[in-house]
Predict the 3D structure of the following.
Amino acid sequence: GIQVEQSPPDLILQEGANSTLRCNFSDSVNNLQWFHQNPWGQLINLFYIPSGTKQNGRLSATTVATERYSLLYISSSQTTDSGVYFCAGPWGTGRRALTFGSGTRLQVQP
Amino acid sequence: DADVTQTPRNRITKTGKRIMLECSQTKGHDRMYWYRQDPGLGLRLIYYSFDVKDINKGEISDGYSVSRQAQAKFSLSLESAIPNQTALYFCATSDRGQNPDTQYFGPGTRLTVL
């Protein structure tokens, strides 16, 4: 299966700052998702984005499939953005389960 | 009401005990998954099921078994729990028909094996 690597592992921001999180994957993907795990442990699906660009409010994501990376942009960060952001790609071949990166832990300070 | 529920939410058990974690969903999805998360790490796939008669091992299935009792229910069992199975366990669902592959997670079960 593919390998998913995320950077940076940790990020501390002041409220209002912008940030970019990166996800590199070792092979082509037909399934790439971003998740946010809040401080209470709940996992929320942010984007399903195997290619192209999507935006949802202050968050946007871009996947460049040919270069095997995806970026998650957070603009005007808020304390509620704190938590861990995971990137996930397909696990196995031809199936739809996921393999996760180790995450980027984001702390937004007031 | 939550679309994907997990019971129990927290469980403390002893080494050697058999325990079952349950997952139910009201989303009408056909695909269900079990993952575990260890501190500081991403999630790892334990088992997945694409319908009631389809059960597949994931990355770390040793020491676990599953049962898909109905389309809406998917249970994970630890036959003889050991301390290194202490982790946060997540159930997830996805729908073959719409937004394929987008996965929706339950709230998690925190399991401690003493």
User: Anything to note?
Assistant: Chain B touches chain A at residues 31, 33, 35, 40-45, 48, 50, 56, 58-59, 88, 90, 94, 99-105, 107-108, 110 (CB under 8 Å). The first strand of chain B starts at residue 4 and ends at 7. The mean pLDDT of chain B is 93. The two ends of chain B are 33 Å apart (CA to CA).
